[in-house]
């Protein structure tokens, strides 16, 4: 995983992008980069992790997110890995609903949940 961060950093740094944050849950990785000129406008960053693997304990399935504010706009970036194949559709929907229900943020009273962001 550190290798993939370096690959992105090497590819993006000549274009003046810098890494803002990395969030990880087992094999799920979220790297957020930003143009250097926008860094001073990033505010209220907070990450959340939801495990939906075996009994909600294993991190082989689930979601990670990073919420932030930039130029007064609240954004939430989510990366998820749920059960595969058609026969697991019900489980996938349940996992999605679990993530939407359980992930919460505290830094901004108006954007406390994933779907409350713009």
UniProtKB/TrEMBL annotation:
Sections of the chain in a coiled coil: none
Alphabetized GO MF terms: phosphatidylinositol-4,5-bisphosphate 5-phosphatase activity
Designated name of the protein: Inositol polyphosphate 5-phosphatase K-like
Residues annotated as domain Inositol polyphosphate-related phosphatase: 12-109
A GO-annotated cellular component: ruffle
Source lineage: Eukaryota, Metazoa, Ecdysozoa, Arthropoda, Hexapoda
One GO-annotated biological process of the protein: phosphatidylinositol dephosphorylation
């Amino acid at each position: 995983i550190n290798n993939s961060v370096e690959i992105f950093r090497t590819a993006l740094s000549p274009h003046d992008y810098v890494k803002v944050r990395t969030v990880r849950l087992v094999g799920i990785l979220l790297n957020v980069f930003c143009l250097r000129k926008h860094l001073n406008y990033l505010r209220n960053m907070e990450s959340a992790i939801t495990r939906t693997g075996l009994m909600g304990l294993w991190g082989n399935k689930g979601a990670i997110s990073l919420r932030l504010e930039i130029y007064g706009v609240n954004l939430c970036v989510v990366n998820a890995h749920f059960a595969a194949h058609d026969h697991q559709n019900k489980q996938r929907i349940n996992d999605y609903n679990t993530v939407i229900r359980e992930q919460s943020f505290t830094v901004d009273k108006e954007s406390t949940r994933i779907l409350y962001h713009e």
